[in-house]
């Protein structure tokens, strides 16, 4: 791409990040991040949300939480999608109580929950208590 004077931007990197994270290829994600930073492309909320999701997919909850922390320290304000990523990841990793804490934090910060928030929590709580929604 560079040889043809086509340069990547944050959208290009975020699409690549998301695809690699969904395929559990976090080693490549780190390489792409290094290339992105070398090219002076600044990460954004979508970069961090994809990275968090990737860590949750491979059950690296501490790293996902760290990514969330780093994002906020860089001045990037999380919004409902970012919180949903955390809630869904925690529920899938059987940390429903932590997911509920994040849900409560959303309410304290006046972040409006959406159907993704409620669906993730409902799924996590049903699995935790052995409730089937299907008859």
Keywords:
single chain; 135 residues; mainly alpha; 2 domains; 68% helix; 0% strand; globular
Strand count, sense and barrel status of the largest sheet are: none
Mean pLDDT: 90
Counting DSSP E segments of at least 2 residues, the number of strands comes to: 0
Query: Could you tell me the radius of gyration in angstroms?
Result: 16 Å
Termini gap: 53 Å
Order of helices and strands: HHHHHHH
- List segments where confidence is low: pLDDT < 50 over at least 5 consecutive residues: none
**General shape:** globular
Total tally of structural domains = 2
- Helix tally equals 7
Helix share bin: 55-70%
Helix/strand/pairing class, anyone?
Answer: mainly alpha
Q: What oligomeric assembly is this protein in?
A: single chain
Report strand %.
under 5%
Describe this structure in words.
By secondary structure, this protein is mainly α. It folds into 2 domains: 1-77; 79-135, no CATH class. The protein is 68% helix and 0% strand. The protein contains 7 helices and no strands. The protein has helices at residues 10-22, 26-38, 45-57, 61-73, 80-92, 96-108, 115-128. α1 runs antiparallel to α2 (26-38), α5 (80-92) packs antiparallel against α6 and α5 packs parallel to α7. The longest helix is centred in the C-terminal third of the chain and has 14 residues, at 115-128. It starts with 9 loop residues before the first helix and ends in a 7-residue tail after the last helix. The relative contact order is 0.10. The model has no long low-confidence stretch (mean pLDDT 90).
